[in-house]
Amino acid sequence: MSSISNSTPPPPALMRRVTFAAAIGNTIETYDYAVYGFLTVVLAKLFFPGSQPGVALLSAFAVFGVAFVVRPLGSLLFGSIADRIGRRPSLVATLVLMALATTAIGLLPTAASVGVWAPILLVGCRLLQGLAAGGEYGTAMTYAAEFTPQHRRGAMTSRVQIGSVASLLLAAGMVLLLNAVLTLAEMEAWGWRIPFLIALPLGLIGLWIRATLEESPEFRALEQRGAVTSSPAKESFARHWRLIVLVFGIAAFQQIGYYVAFTYAQSYIIQLGFTQKQATLATVISIAVAIVLVAVGGPLSDRWGRWPMLLWLSAAMLVLAYPLFAALSSATSLTAVVFFTVLLGVVPALYTSVAPATYIEVVPARVRATVFAVGFALAAALLGGPALYVSQFLVRLTGDNRAPAYFLMFGALISLVAALVVRRQRPQSLAPDLAVASAADGAPDRSQQGV
Predict the structure, then answer these.
(1) CA end-to-end span of the chain, whole Å?
(2) pLDDT of 240-262, one tens digit each?
């Protein structure tokens, strides 16, 4: 079977199935993480009841971040499976583990029932979530991209990314609905469990879809040429560690911007004196706008190139982060809060639509899933996971409600440098494996385009 560089694209029906199969796992992964983020205030009371309110919230944020600690381990495990056995088996395994771990959170006893065992069990479930998430995102994006011609890869990966952003909307909408129909007492007694339990039917649907798909054409091409690596992790670190660092750099702003703008913002708005319903509403509107921007950003990167968009978006966040937080922190009306929350999410949304295609195009096919997953998981563990905790800690440390802007600017600066490196990588923008496969198929080599 020809590689994705072949000038003959796969049938539209197959592409729709591939897109949906890749997106459903990302949707479930992000939904599971987002639900925890949107319910942090409630979970803090239920699992850390003996702490002062500020300390309890920090503890709940810390548990949110602990799932990211094991993501690098999950990236090695499931990335290696994807590069050695196939993309599809890895996708099935990550989906099953994520759905089961999230459902388990919805069944956990609280501290009122089992005391200290409640947060311990919560941490255990979060660790399992993190293990699955470590391999899910990179493998899903790799799988979808390897069905896609070079000149449309940005559009394809942005469609898969829409699943991640849409899941934030699903999670926020679910929490908003529960807050609207349940009293605070009902929400704390049993209502908080519902969003987590929904992960089970979503997981079953995703499992059925992924189990019926074929392997990606590029991995099949590697198999036919006998080019599948027997030790993806070893090869990745021995020969491609610079690419792992590059993926980490590209992902820095994606990770921080994503979780600050679309998850932490809700808790932040509550601390400004607005109700949980108002804060969730503002976040829902911001995410809805972000979905449109993600859909637009990917196709634009196919036309304008990846690195210029990554560069200018990172630079824009460096300039705008502090003014946006200053405006949001001084807002006195719900209209103003919604307006500035939406503005805060514009640049991260566009950036997260461009980055995935870039990861694909700078890594060789034979270790693509592993390098992508490891670099992205390290950024998640060191930057994305701690984003909520660090943002809140900066506010408490400085007494300045605008302090989370500094963390956003830090991530944007790292990614700005990475974008400059991507520009220098342009002659090797596509994997050598892909160029070889293109030549073998008689297809035009587009390896110099798109990045």
Answers:
(1) 25
(2) 999 999 999 999 999 999 989 98
Query: Mean of the pLDDT values across residues 195-217?
Result: 86
Residues in the chain: 451
Q: Where along the chain do its domains lie?
A: 12-441
Structure tokens belonging to residue 388: 């909520």
pLDDT at residue 372 above 70?
yes
Burial class (CB in 10 A: 0-12, 13-18, 19+), 73: middle
Q: Are the CB atoms for 161 and 286 separated by under 8 Å?
A: no
Q: How far apart are alpha carbons 124 and 138 in whole angstroms?
A: 23
CA 409, CA 318: separation in Å to the nearest integer?
5
Model-level pTM greater than 0.90? no
Residue 444, number of CB atoms within 10 A of its CB:
13
* 203 neighbors 390 (Cβ within 8 angstroms): no
Is a pLDDT exceeding 80 seen at residue 449?
Answer: no
Per-residue pLDDT, 431: 38
Compute the distance between CA of residue 367 and CA of residue 426 in angstroms, rounded to an integer: 19
> What CATH superfamily is the domain 12-441?
MFS general substrate transporter like domains (1.20.1250.20)
- Give the Cα separation of 148 and 54 in Å (integer): 48
